[in-house]
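ARCHIVE CARD
CATEGORY: sequence design from structure
SOURCE FIELD: tokenized fold
FIELD CONTENT:
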């Protein structure tokens, strides 16, 4: 098993035990989605931080870490938006290595 320095859980799908095992300590794991965190000694982060309500501060922090090359998000597969049902079915099947993503055409993401 590989060692991981820190883990940030956003799935809330009961993976905290695995993350604690990967990092070696509950102190190295933070979740924003698993409300059973305290039972494992893992910190649940929510609410206001740095003046940003509802945890929006996490987006800026994650983006900054990504820009620094310190945050990676594994992607298992990317689907066209027209294949959203297929992507959803794959995501619902259970354990996987990486996120399932939808590619949104640029024409839908730009305001006219």
């Amino acid at each position: 098993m590989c060692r991981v320095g820190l883990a940030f859980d956003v799935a809330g799908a009961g993976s905290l035990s695995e993350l604690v095992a990967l990092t070696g300590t509950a102190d190295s794991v933070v979740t924003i989605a698993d409300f059973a965190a305290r039972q494992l000694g893992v910190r649940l982060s929510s609410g206001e931080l740095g003046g940003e309500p509802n945890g929006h501060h996490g987006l800026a922090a994650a983006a900054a870490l990504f820009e620094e090359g310190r945050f990676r998000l594994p992607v298992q597969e990317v689907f066209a938006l027209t294949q959203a049902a297929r992507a959803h079915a794959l995501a619902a099947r259970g354990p996987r290595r990486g996120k399932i993503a939808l590619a949104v055409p640029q024409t839908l993401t730009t305001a006219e």
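CARD ANNOTATION: Strands lie at 7-9, 29-31, 43-44, 75-80, 99-103. The first strand starts at residue 7 and ends at 9.
SHELF: design records, drawer C
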